[in-house]
């Protein structure tokens, strides 16, 4: 007798195929395994010295996703006698374990990034390192590169410094738990509740982050909704997809990382280095038209402050549409990229963050550009020549940009497939939706709950972007990530 039941879908195999299609090589070469054995057999040792500070006694903590194990950064803040606040951000010293041009380094240089597909992670470095020896896990001593900066209570910057240290994470915390506590929506998580000192430390960090954010927005940084849709798993099966929302804890880390990356970029101004930039938009006229359609007027010349004022107003006036407005603005502003910046070059700047000096330095376990930056920092601290030529840095910048774009395509492709799978048992149901695109390829709608997009195959006549309608789910295709609706 024939079994008519559908075959189970192997999501991990599907993710691997999507990775391969985008030019990634998910398997680590054999030579990397021998290097891992060597690291485990003869682990590198680091002791405090005149060049390596012993900061294990500070109340360091990490805040990351609930499932994160590749911990790249820890934070601690200190109130100074004059009212200023000193912030120290410890970044995992991945270069300490992965020497330049070694098999692991060559693989990382080729892949450039870890890829998060919702069902599995394809790490840039093996888990034995990225979630083990080089991760800033709690209650173990770790080598780090520390970025330190001082700000006054309004968020204005003071002195800054970068140096090597040995650190010890005292508390591994999560965005959801800390964010809810900082916002007064939930009690403190157990580790925080058990330590008045940690409570005071996190509130001081939050105070600093809020001041940094306020100052960035005053300078024109863009307040965009970049929330992701993530799968909700039960017994390793996708049962729904939910929108991952930002909170005070995610903002805290984001603001600290932006500040740290700026400090490092300014430190490296006298040498050739990598920069992370978002160019001034070529399609500013499209952004002007987008604002005009909302009844607002933007200046004829690109102006990040004016654009952010518009975004803040629209977010307050129409929160349901803000995610789609953000997506439209992101597409018109254009993607970020890596470039070589030599001493004396005019800075390209980062339009979205409204800063002139910006690099990537805070995630070396999962981004190769950050390992390169870490090596440039160390060479500068040791007063040695840089480990990369300008041609090397140009080639690395181009590859990191291209592979970063490819990684986002993998993540989008898998997000669509996971959404189709989560909706496959809801064919025939009716949902509230909003029109998000009217194109020659078809009319697209976004379901408001759960948050996902699909094609309107029937009843699209006369609809415009922003229209709110009711739709019925008629078909899902997990293999291709298709979700089809008709107007209800």
Give the strand tally. 17
What does the radius of gyration come to? 24 Å
Q: Describe the global form.
A: globular
Share of helical residues: 25-40%
Oligomer: single chain
Mean pLDDT metric: 91
Give a short account of the largest sheet.
6 strands, mixed
Secondary-structure class: alpha+beta
Amino-to-carboxy terminus distance: 39 Å
The parts where pLDDT drops under 50 for at least 5 residues are 1-5
Percent range for β-strand residues:
15-25%
Tally of helical segments? 13
- Spell out the helices and strands N to C: HHEEEEHEEHEEHHHEEHEHHHEHHEEEEE
Which descriptors would you attach to this protein?
488 residues, alpha+beta, 5-stranded mixed β-barrel, globular, disordered N terminus
Short summary of the structure?
Helix content is 37%, strand content 25%. By secondary structure, it is of the alpha+beta class. The chain is globular and about 70 Å long.
How would you describe what is shown here?
With 488 residues, the protein is an alpha+beta fold. 37% of the residues lie in helices and 25% in strands. The chain is built from 13 helices and 17 strands. Strands 1, 2, 3, 4, 7 and 8 form a six-stranded mixed beta sheet that branches. Strand 9 and strand 10 (237-244) form a beta hairpin. The radius of gyration is 24 Å and the shape is globular.
């Amino acid at each position: 007798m024939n079994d008519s039941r559908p075959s189970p879908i192997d999501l991990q195999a599907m993710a691997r195929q999507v990775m391969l299609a985008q030019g990634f090589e998910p398997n680590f070469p054999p030579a990397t395994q021998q290097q891992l054995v060597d690291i485990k057999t003869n682990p590198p040792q680091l002791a405090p010295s005149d060049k390596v500070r012993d900061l294990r006694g500070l109340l360091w903590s990490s805040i990351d996703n609930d499932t994160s194990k590749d911990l790249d950064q820890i934070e601690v803040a200190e109130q100074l006698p004059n009212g200023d606040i000193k912030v120290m951000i410890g970044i995992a010293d991945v270069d300490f374990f992965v020497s330049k041009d070694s098999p692991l380094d060559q693989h990382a240089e080729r892949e450039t990034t870890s890829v998060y597909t919702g069902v599995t992670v394809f790490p840039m470095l093996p888990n034995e390192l990225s979630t083990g020896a080089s991760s800033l896990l709690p209650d173990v001593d770790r080598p780090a590169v520390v970025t330190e900066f001082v700000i006054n209570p309004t968020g204005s910057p003071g002195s800054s410094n970068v140096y090597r240290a040995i650190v010890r994470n005292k508390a591994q915390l999560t965005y959801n738990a800390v964010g809810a506590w900082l916002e007064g929506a939930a009690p403190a998580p157990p580790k925080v509740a058990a330590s008045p000192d940690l409570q005071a430390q996190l509130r001081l960090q939050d105070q600093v982050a809020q001041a940094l954010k306020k100052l960035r927005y005053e300078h024109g940084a863009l307040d965009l909704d970049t929330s992701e849709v993530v799968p909700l798993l039960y017994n390793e099966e996708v049962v729904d997809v939910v929108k991952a929302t930002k909170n005070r804890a995610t903002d805290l880390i984001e603001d600290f990382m932006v500040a740290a990356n700026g400090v490092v970029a300014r430190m490296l101004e006298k040498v050739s280095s990598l920069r992370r930039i978002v160019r001034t938009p070529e399609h500013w006229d499209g952004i002007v038209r987008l604002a005009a359609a909302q009844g607002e007027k933007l200046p004829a010349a690109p102006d990040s402050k004016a654009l952010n004022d518009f975004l803040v107003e629209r977010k307050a006036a129409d929160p349901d549409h803000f995610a789609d407005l953000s997506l439209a603005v992101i597409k018109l502003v254009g993607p970020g990229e890596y470039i070589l910046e030599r001493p004396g070059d005019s800075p390209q700047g980062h339009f979205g963050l409204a800063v002139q000096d910006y690099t990537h330095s805070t995630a070396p376990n999962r981004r190769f550009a950050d390992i390169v930056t870490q090596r440039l920092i160390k060479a500068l601290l040791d007063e040695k020549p840089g480990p990369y030529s300008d041609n090397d840095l140009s080639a690395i910048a181009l590859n990191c940009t291209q592979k970063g774009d490819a990684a986002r395509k993998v993540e989008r492709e898998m997000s669509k497939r996971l959404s189709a799978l989560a909706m496959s048992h809801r064919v025939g149901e009716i949902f509230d939706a909003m029109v998000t695109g009217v194109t020659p390829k078809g009319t697209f709608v976004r379901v408001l709950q759960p948050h996902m997009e699909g094609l309107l195959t029937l009843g699209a006549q006369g609809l415009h972007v922003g229209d709110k309608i009711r739709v019925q789910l008629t078909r899902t295709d997990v293999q291709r990530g298709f979700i089809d609706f008709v107007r209800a």
